[in-house]
Design goal:
Structural class: mainly beta
Helix content: 10-25%
Strand content: over 45%
Distance between the termini: 45 Å
Radius of gyration: 23 Å
Length: 334
């Protein structure tokens, strides 16, 4: 349908071809889209989001639940489902589509023993009819998983957080063009350099205001003895420097509680660093969880190393593909 199946940008010698299709029942539409398609991805807890405007004509019939696919230069980049359609007096329709991660906002209750985070994801995918792609083995077996009235997102994230604490291995869950994928963050590096030339503008923030702790206090309520057992660890030098920044949690088991306190201190006793970059040259390989090389003078540090993409928005408009990035790095806070 329509002549708008592709729009092609010429930027210098780089040709950018954007193809969007929507399927409604047995019909496949290639609607005429206005410029300004965006894809937004975040590293955890949020579904991938595709936003675009289509020009309404008599032949076009789309509705919620319809599959949508976006390809760039013939490379499939996003596959999801229409969740919102907004119309007004204009002849255009605003459409929001989410990838499969949207269905992880469902809530449920589970009690399981001896599962790995990767097993939990497979189990959820089966129960909620979600398509799976590459799911790397997270290896660490979680003694007990008890989740009451939690989102599936939180269940998987809690399992991944526990895996991180115990193995120092960080995994990223994402939807790879219609298939749920779980990968070790170390296997998500791309050969891309962001420097003063490739990014138009940047903001850099270092902070001890959020997710920085120099004292960890875990409590186990021992019902047999009727006592509260404490597991504490701290960094005296950092307390002198920053004052007491305490992390407190009630734990369900005393097994490994002191080791958990030590691991938490290691993870959190550092400044968080956040770098946002506007209007970098677009690259279809970049998604949340990807690592790329950043070479910038940031004042308190000069970076020339890998940073992790916490959020990315891909923007296709005005004859080019640009990206807005939020990066975290070096001292990496999960």
């Amino acid at each position: 349908h329509g002549s708008g199946s592709y729009f092609t940008f010429l930027k210098g010698s780089i040709r950018l071809t954007v193809e969007l299709l929507i399927q409604n029942g047995s019909k496949i539409y290639y609607p005429v889209t206005e410029e300004g398609i965006t894809i937004a991805w975040e590293r955890k807890g949020t579904p991938g989001k595709l936003e675009f405007k289509v020009i309404q004509d008599n032949a076009l019939a789309i509705q919620e639940g319809n599959p949508v696919k976006l390809s760039i230069n013939g490379i499939p980049m996003f596959y999801g489902f229409v969740f919102r359609i907004k119309r007004n007096r204009e002849p255009t329709v605003d459409v929001v589509a989410y990838d499969q991660l949207r269905y992880l906002k469902n809530k449920d209750t589970i009690t399981e023993e001896g599962l790995k985070a990767s097993d939990l994801l497979k189990r959820i995918a089966t129960d909620f009819r979600l398509r799976l792609g590459t799911v790397e083995n997270t290896r660490y077996i979680i003694e007990t998983i008890v989740e009451e009235n939690q989102t599936l997102f939180d269940m998987v994230q809690n399992a991944l957080d526990e895996t991180l604490l115990n193995t120092k291995q960080l995994y990223v869950l994402y939807d790879d063009v219609g298939k749920l994928t779980l990968k070790n963050i170390n296997s998500m590096k791309v050969g891309l350099l962001i420097n003063a030339e490739t990014g138009e503008n940047f903001d850099y923030e270092s902070s001890i205001d959020d997710q920085t702790y120099n004292k960890i206090k875990l409590v186990f309520n021992n019902e047999k003895s009727g006592k509260r057992e404490l597991y504490v660890t701290q960094d005296g030098a950092k307390i002198n420097q920053w004052g007491v920044l305490q992390y407190f949690e009630e734990v369900q088991t005393q097994t490994g509680a002191q080791a958990k306190a030590n691991a938490l201190l290691k993870l959190y006793e550092q400044k968080t660093r956040k770098l946002t970059i506007k209007n970098a040259f677009g690259d279809v390989r970049v998604r949340a969880g990807t690592s790329l090389v950043v070479s910038l003078n940031l004042g308190d540090i000069i970076t020339n190393n890998f940073m992790v993409v916490e959020k990315v928005q891909h923007i296709f408009k005005d004859n080019e593909h640009l990206m807005d990035l939020t990066l975290i790095g070096g001292t990496f806070i999960a």
